[in-house]
Amino acid sequence: MDNAQTGMQARVNVKCPWLAILPLMLGSFVGMFSETSLNIALPQLMKALQVGQSSIQWLVTGYMLVIGIVLPLSSLLTKWFATKKLVLFGLGAFIVGSLISGFGVNFPMVLIGRMIQGIGTGLILPLMFTIAMLIFPPNKLGTVNGVLALVIMFAPAIGPTLTGLILAAGSWRDIFFTFVVFLVIAFVIGLFSLKNVSQITKPKVDFVSIILSIFVFSGLIAGASFASEMGWLSVPVLACLIVGVIALIFYVRRQLKLEVPVLNMRVFRHRNFTLGAILVMVDFGIILSAMYLLPQYLQNGLLVAVALTGIIMLPGGVINAVTSAFAGRMYDSFGAKWPARIGFIIAFVIHIDT
């Protein structure tokens, strides 16, 4: 009876949990939307900013690099700062970055704006799931995570289509101004609906771990980015990857020794968590890489118009988003094993067929 009662109660009581999580859902939506929408706009940005393919790619790579640096620090930040302040800061950073990119007069200015946007996404994305775990009861988390996944997947679904329409009617600057509209709405809602749900303990900050994490993500992401232009066996790529891997080894060892780690690596001792993390990484890697490469191929290889490229990308994204919502309910009813197996079998068969 006690266990059943525990499953029905959230760790932190919030009067309207869906309203409390709404600003983070909007922020996460824009974070994913901004990544896939720019994939469509890259050819136009190359012409407008007068840069090549390798340089324009940094609008995506730089954004992901900052996310990779900030995201592991989110757990530490929640122990030092109130939840509401962190969320509003993340949304505010995204708004400022979007305005800088939107008004950018050259490539460095647009890139700086994109990297500031990465700060916002790096904070908002993990906080959305962390706060959801606290304000919703455990027996509803499958459904809740399904809805949150729907939000994340719906952004890539409509991103190319909406971007194609924006570019057909206006300019690439309007993409960034579209971000601002959604983010301002999220910021205003957050001012009134957000509640501080994390416990502020202010643990000791291990700056060595922070520096190592910067080297890890900078090395790995920069190496993978340079590989598309220089090749995997080139000296700069190998140097970046080696630095990233060595820093990762020292980072993991340090987290396992610290009493209060910046990122708790001990959870990987649990087999189910490790397996789930690997599967999610593979799944998102396949999805996001396809969403980056396919628009480039359609526009540059097949010379398909921007608006039509967005329409071609729409059906698969919509199905992905809708399936995410049902997957959450399936988890509540059947657990994770069979839905995950069915999903990977379908993905495998489709990719083999194509």
Automatic annotation (TrEMBL):
UniProt entry tagged with the keyword Coiled coil: no
Pfam family, one: MFS_1
Membrane topology: Multi-pass membrane protein
GO CC annotations, alphabetized: plasma membrane
Swiss-Prot/TrEMBL keywords: Membrane, Transmembrane, Transmembrane helix, Transport
Domain of life: Bacteria
Domain Major facilitator superfamily (MFS) profile: 20-354
Single Gene Ontology MF annotation: transmembrane transporter activity
Compartments it resides in: Cell membrane
InterPro entries tied to this protein: MFS, MFS_dom, MFS_trans_sf
UniProt keyword Hydrolase, yes or no: no
Transmembrane segments: 12-34, 54-74, 86-109, 115-136, 148-169, 175-194, 206-227, 233-252, 273-294, 300-322
Name used for this protein in its record: Lincomycin-resistance protein
Taxon lineage: Bacteria, Bacillati, Bacillota, Bacilli, Lactobacillales
